Amino acid sequence: MCRLMSKKTTIKDVAKLAGVSTASVSQVLNGNANSFHKDTVARIIAAKESLNYTPNYFAQKMTKKSSQMIGVLVPDISNPFFSTLVSGIEDVLYKNGYITILSNVGFEAEKEKKHIEEFGRREVDGFVVASSATSKVEAAAQLNKEGKPYVLLDHETVYANGDAISVDSYGGGELAGRHLQELGHRDVVIVAPVNPSATIQNRISGFLRVFPNCKNDIIYTDLSPEGGRIAAAEVVKTAATAIFAINDELAIGLSSGLSELGKSVPADYSLIGYDNIAMGNYIKPKLTTIAQPITELGERTASMLLSRIANPTKDPEHIILPVKLIKKDSTAPLN
């Protein structure tokens, strides 16, 4: 049986039912209800709901001069750090009427550039760039060209034309080193990714302030639990008694890999990670780590961008959030 499709409800239908002009309906539904009597607003809202009317996105965008969309670029959404970060960003944006558009750019410079361009073509109202495929200098240059507000996330350098927020990565690395030093360890190794980002390089530099002779004792692997598991075979070839894993995912993989090789944490190796992701509480032993305020970082990043959108001419802002040592069960005094 053939059936005619029902006619889509238009703004004219809402105006007719409410007994007002289409201009009045447009104004009320686009946030200017304060300009009308409350009874008029009530009739328009009632008519909209009665007719199940949904405003046309593109028409609404032209009226508001805003897309109410924010482009967010991250390198790896499967990493618990970035999924928690995006959750914090999205929560604040949603509460302020914005929709988050997420791009998982990996570590591909060309992909990052392309997605910034595509977000610009779709006229997002702003950008959050947490990826590290290109240097933050290059990213800032491209974002300045797009002419939209942006926040560069997790980097320690101030950029003249943009805002930036980060955590104290150097201080975090130093904290990890001090903790192992206080436990009596002298022979240590660092497990880090190939081609580390500037943020990770800062963690390493902070650790090397405590253990300067460790600069030649860095084991490079993939930035993943599997990368950590594979790196365990290299760790046992060294004289190390302690390991600084550059993030918790690596540390979790190391713990598993060492166990497979008949080694025990912390009896044979003290192990400290970085990030304080939830999974660190569900392995045995629980992971000692450097905690980043991940949710707060996401929330403050979003708030920073919204402030820039509201006040585009204010001076650039740069915020550095502190980190802290979380002592659990994977580190112990050297016997």
Explain how this protein is built.
- With 335 residues, the chain is α/β, with parallel strands linked by helices.
- It has three domains: 11-64, lambda repressor-like DNA-binding domains (434 Repressor (Amino-terminal Domain), Orthogonal Bundle); 69-167 and 294-321, Rossmann fold (3-Layer(aba) Sandwich), CATH 3.40.50; 169-292, Response regulator (Rossmann fold, 3-Layer(aba) Sandwich), CATH 3.40.50.2300.
- Helices cover 43% and strands 17% of the residues.
- It contains twelve helices and twelve strands.
- A six-stranded parallel beta sheet has the order 2-1-3-4-5-11, with helices on both faces. A six-stranded mixed beta sheet has the order 7-6-8-9-10-12, sandwiched between helices.
- The chain starts with 10 loop residues before the first helix and ends in a 9-residue tail after the last strand.
- InterPro entries: HTH_LacI (IPR000843), LacI/GalR-like_sensor (IPR046335), Lambda_DNA-bd_dom_sf (IPR010982), Peripla_BP_I (IPR028082).
- Residues 9-64 form the HTH lacI-type domain.
- GO terms for molecular function: DNA-binding transcription factor activity; transcription cis-regulatory region binding.
Task: List its traits.
single chain, 335 residues, alpha/beta, Rossmann fold, six-stranded mixed beta sheet, 12 helices, 12 strands, disordered N terminus, transcription regulation, transcription cis-regulatory region binding, transcription, DNA-binding transcription factor activity, LacI/GalR-like_sensor
